[in-house]
Amino acid sequence: MNHTATGAIEPGRLFHDQHGRTAQLHGIGILRLGDRFWAWGEDKRRGGTFSAIACYSSPDLATWRYEGDSLTAGPGDLAPDRVVERPKVLHHAATGRYVMLVHIDSADYTDARVGFAVGDRPAGPYEYRGSVRPLGRLSRDIGVHTEEGVGYLLSEDRDHGLHIYRLTDDYLAVDSLVSTTLADHGRHGYESPALVRVDGTYYLFGSDLTGWTTNDNRYTTAPALTGPWEPWRLFAPEGSATHDSQISAIATVHGTERTSHVYLGDRWLPDRLADSPPVWLPLHIGGGRAHLEWSDRWSIDTTTGNISGQDGPARPRRSTAT
Fold it and tell me: What is the pTM of this model?
């Protein structure tokens, strides 16, 4: 069998585009379209406030081509003194259009809204359509999910928990609340959520609320989006702070031989956000369990779904950045 040529992924090392520039894949959202992965990230070269949402594509999750800026600074929510984070894109199959959802906020994080934009191509440009508080609730870090043509928003609301909302048919507004989960101590929900369905079970991942400092991320499972959700538990070695990273998304690779999942995380450097390295690792999911092991260097065959180069037991990786 002929296998797709693949590049190596080294967790904690930066990706570079075809021009040799650091790929701005922070807070990533990702889709597979045909034989390429398309990804959208926060351009942090000007720091924490907004300059652009950059778009890249890749055949193997390791070699990235800059495709342009999908969303750029402008008036209102997109002003340069605003916060625009966590770009997540859904493909609306019925119309062929692409809908981007983003966390919209003020520099002091008091606005807590979700914004919507739409484009005709994966790279855009996207037309910004405005922002809301979903059903009147706070919304900071977000994730998205689709199945059978229905779109869902995952939204962190520290006053009430981590919410799953059903989107309207065009994905451009929030329709209804599906379920809410709380952290173990019952005070708030987890942030930076990501959701996948494997063999009929939903796996919901999130990070504790510790700002730029990494923590032991957790996950919960349920037989339906409405729940009931199991108690949150670790999926990386305790004390490793999820290998010194925060989850942003999960890439699913449906191959000819197997389906694999890839954890896409950020290791934030608050004083050098543009150089915050990606921490991407194979994520083992099945039987109601999820497990993340460290590998110094690995690759994935995006045709077969096979992963190679995993090299030994997990080792806690912690950063001294504060």
Answer: 0.94
